[in-house]
Amino acid sequence: xxxxxxxxxxxxxxxYIISIGLSLTFxxxxxxxFAHALVYTLGAYVLVSVLPRVGNLFPVAAVIAVLxxxxxxxxxxxxxxxxxxxxxxxxxxxxxxxxxxxxxxxxIKWVWGAAPISLSDPIGLAVPVLGVELPLYRLVIIGVAIxxxxxxxxxxxRTVVGKIVVAGLEDREAVRSLGIEVDRYxxxxxxIGSALAALGGVLYAPITSVHPYMGFQVILVCFAVVLVGGxxxxxxxxxxxxxxxLVIAVTGRFWGSAAETMVFVVMAVVLIxxxxxx
Amino acid sequence: xxxxxxxxxxxxxxxxLVAAAFLLLAPxxxxxxxxxxxxxxxxxxxxxxxxxHMGRLSFGHMLYLGxxxxxAALCAEHLNDNPFFALFAGTLGGALAGVILGxxxxxxxxxxxxxxxxxxxxxxxxxxxxxxxxxxxGENGMSASFAPIGGFDLGNRYLMFGVTLISLLVVVLxxxxxxxxxxxxxLRTIKENERRSIFxxxxxxxxxxxxxxxxxAVAGFAGALSSLNYAFVTPSFIDPARSVEVVFAAxxxxxxxxxxxxxxxxxxxxxxxxxxxxxxxxEMFLGVVLLLLVFKFxxxxxxxxxxxxxxxxxxxxx
Lengths: 278, 318
What we know:
The complex is a heterodimer. Chain A is mainly alpha-helical. Chain A has one domain (about 15-225). Chain A has helices at about 1-30, 35-50, 60-80, 90-110, 135-160, 160-170, 170-175, 180-205, 215-230, 235-255, 260-270, and strands at about 115-120, 125-130, 130-135, 210. Chain A has a two-stranded antiparallel ribbon with strand order 1-4. Chain A has a two-stranded antiparallel ribbon with strand order 2-3. In chain A, a hairpin with a 2-residue loop joins strand 2 (about 125-130) and strand 3 (about 130-135). In chain A, helix 9 crosses helix 10. By secondary structure, chain B is mainly α. Chain B has one domain. In chain B, helix 3 packs parallel to helix 8, helix 8 runs antiparallel to helix 11 and helix 12 (about 245-255) crosses helix 13 (about 260-275). Classes of the chains: A mainly alpha, B mainly alpha.
């Protein structure tokens, strides 16, 4: 059981890392950014390619993978998402980012092929926790997720950029009327979110296999995380990510194929008790 | 004025025109393929009631198509192999999904609406592939055999073509009546500004639920038709990854118009059937065209034709 809980927390940590960006774009622009899944997938693929070239040093390869994918995220933001700002085009934004995801997945299949690639555990050590041997790598992921949570809290509470974004989440027009270009700050936040998505892909790659459609599955679960946690609420996202990670792990222990489906059942239940939006 | 009258006159016989168009298409493409096209058109019509008219983008409409297809096939296997009974079962399956999921789904708008449908589609896919694999035979798909009734054997592709054509015409009529009615008008006001419709005293929640259920029922009907047509049902009928196809069709034809949905259905099927022979990177092509549609060509083919027509009218009257 301890193993299951640890696995759930690992999944939850990764879901949290990926969901931050999704939650922020959702909160700031009311856009579901499917291209987020592309950034995540690409992060994992770049890692796979870079890893042998840097002498299998995982941290180095991870940093390179994240840095390589950030410019792509900028291009997507600048030329697709920003063109579709505005209340009337929410649907178009969904379709356009989905189109970007389709193009990206096909490009990945073109470059790397469609076959799944598996990576070995970068640490390979196991530590005993409460009498159960747990892979150290998974504990590292949980640690990274918690560290990112505190970094994010600090960023949004202590820095000016973070405070502007929090204010923009509340009331975009009011912040703009103060003479602050909110959109530029949203771009910064978008890039941070994308870098974290790529990091999520990098961290998750050794646990599962790397394949072109990995992003499609994850983005759906992350969406559930964002919805359950509350749109644009970073603490809510944190709690929801770990809760749903545990749901996945516990369900998976008893009925493997139902693991991800259970997340959507939880989401539906949460939605039933939410007020109707107009 | 005269040309407007002419347009109205065409509109009055539109059912005949649609029938003629598909009858002409049949010898060009082969009967079986045209049947396929028409079934997809029914699906697009069902989808467009939600997207084009009510302004709710669903990203998981394959669920309702797939439920209809599986309901028809399961019904044929376990209850009654009358094909018309199977069609009824498929429609009922779609409608039930709408009635049950509707209260959850129509609470939301925009991105939430799109993704909740997608999430439910994922659940449905899981149910078909894993949970009920005993009955649906999972990934392998199940065959659906229907008994001929009174000399009518729907295995005959000409007969199947006829049944599908009549179904399509009925659905077109239904959708036209619906969208021209006060109900259709209310759906459009919900699309434009739901708050105001509530303010006018309408219980929009109920109407949205009703529209959603009609859409899922018709989608289920299309699913049942396709299981009749193929005599086989695979999980690809309910695959959430394919949900984008119907969005694409609705967009390329022109959302919010019955004729646009027909044009879009035919255009998408033509592209997806013939283009992979020439273009290897099909998904990439789909993505690029979707981007072009979103940025440059939002009105779709039908909207473009209409605009050309009105421009001509304007010049004439001047």
